[in-house]
């Protein structure tokens, strides 16, 4: 696929530097050079995209529209060069021009348009949809500020604005002629025509312009190219307002302010619903612009919307884009003049919903008064959808008010977005086998019984080209050696062939050497960035993910304090050196999560100044966990902490990144860990803790964490120490109170840390025993890598294509 030689790339880059920045190579800063490279690759992808667009048009192919309020893209230069087959040529070109390719890649800011797993999943799926040659478009908001940058000051998280567009916008192509208008507020007036048909008119509204800033997505070893369409918000009001009358002037200013703020910042809450009116504006803004854009292009091609559902599928990533349902209805009813039944048929054969969480606090419920005032026409349509559904439920369940109340779309003054999705979507899927079962058995049980065929599972996956081949080139080379080439890059299940080498001692030694090198490289990076010296002779035990109580970083802390106390009691004990690495952002308003970050930093400081721990025990909190940091860390990790309370983590994808890079998992039977265990067997994973069913049972029986605290002396000592704090004299009794007594209506130890504590400690012991026999460990590591093909996003996207989207994929 190397379409360009070094000489050609050199000329293209020099040309960009001259035309866009008026610089010679000698005058170019690294920033100039980064932008020039990005623009050169952007041109290539744009050319491919136009070809793809023409083929999709001519073939009248069904298209996928992936709507997500988050796309956690990370960096693109190295990735795009890799997919275009130009990575080596680009590196040589840059070295030839006197620049270090590695340094230049480091210049690029992460496009942090997401919080964590859900946003990163959307990014991985764009790669796979493109590589599998599916005509697909991603849609989101072009946030001016991505997920905040995290600084740790005096052990506490401080948030800084992430202004990524200065350099990051090199990838974006504004398409001003494809601007859409989105309308807020005002009111609806009925307009009856001579045939007695109502054409509701929206008056007194505030308009916001949605301007596409397109990012092209290159696939691997294909010219097929897709687009991520990021909507920017602008006011339609002209800048000079001096001539406006007083009333209009104020309205104009208000309009301008409202427009600009919509695309200002990503909401930094992960797995938590924020009922803010600005968030609702963001959702409708992006959904309305997207639907209008799809409809406009469809009408231009087919001249009718009657076949809309045959040519498009709209996948909604969690409930955040749910307003796509009434918005598409609105256009079909008000603009096309379709009957309710015609419109409803089209909508319900177009839209599909992926559920990402069963946590009650994450389920979106919008106050009806807010929707009514902000989106008056959408509100009318929602009321009608809810009313008809209510009738259906009453026919189905008669007087069973409990069921009806549970499934209603509008209830108690709130609009429940998940119930709307379940009512309107053609398919509903969970993101791991266990999670999809919980949806069917618990969350949407009655809807499942009424229409079992609508419920599917698609287990999440990750872009294995990025998360293995690109970030861990030595491991990539070893896999090629052992599996007869690079087949696994296109057919991820072929990575299984690595298992043929599981008894080859030299391969196992190489695997160990690669891990060692990756650890040292990561340690050198940490030393440069923060001055902290990691002990590379210790096992790297890693927990990186958003900070959330259900993810149980605190359980990890309990275990480390337990180890610390053992070491204090008996400084000469037999002790396997362990380095515990944490990385996690807490939502700025999530106080407990922030306290846990501070606790980790207190513990890290305590252990680092205690000579007893020297070369044995180390705890490090890595600042600002993000995609580009994960890419450095995964290849260096040895033990992967996936320890959520069973039943709470929908899938996890961090778990898959670790597995693919040869880390072993210590984990609960939660999310996709269940399927990892199925692949690996008991002997290649360290399982512990209650199952999801046992968690439910213990709660039904009346779980009492205080009893466990009083009964288990070691556990009591750990908790008492955390309550008292360390030498920095910060007490963490507010945290331990939650474990023992519960606070503000929540039960004591809601996430069952104490119930799983001893089982967790034992699993750690088993892990260290395995680590002591290095050959055995290396073999387990190899088996983990070899059996990770199932967790490639290519497999997930093939599942979506076959089961949900009904579109063909590249063979
Ligand atoms: C993969 C990834 C996540 C998701 O991690 P989980 O352990 O599945 O929660 C979060 N943040 C970043 C930066 C990631 O790359």
UniProtKB/TrEMBL annotation:
GO cellular component: cytoplasm
Keyword set, alphabetical order: Carbohydrate metabolism, Glycogen metabolism, Glycosyltransferase, Phosphoprotein, Pyridoxal phosphate, Transferase
Residues bearing PTM N6-(pyridoxal phosphate)lysine: 657
SUPFAM superfamilies: UDP-Glycosyltransferase/glycogen phosphorylase
Enzyme class: transferase
Residues passing through the membrane, by range: none
Glycosyltransferase as UniProt keyword: yes
Cofactors (names): pyridoxal 5'-phosphate
EC number, UniProt record: 2.4.1.1
Stated role: Phosphorylase is an important allosteric enzyme in carbohydrate metabolism. Enzymes from different sources differ in their regulatory mechanisms and in their natural substrates. However, all known phosphorylases share catalytic and structural properties.
Name the UniProt record assigns to this protein: Alpha-1,4 glucan phosphorylase
Source organism of this protein record: Flintibacter hominis
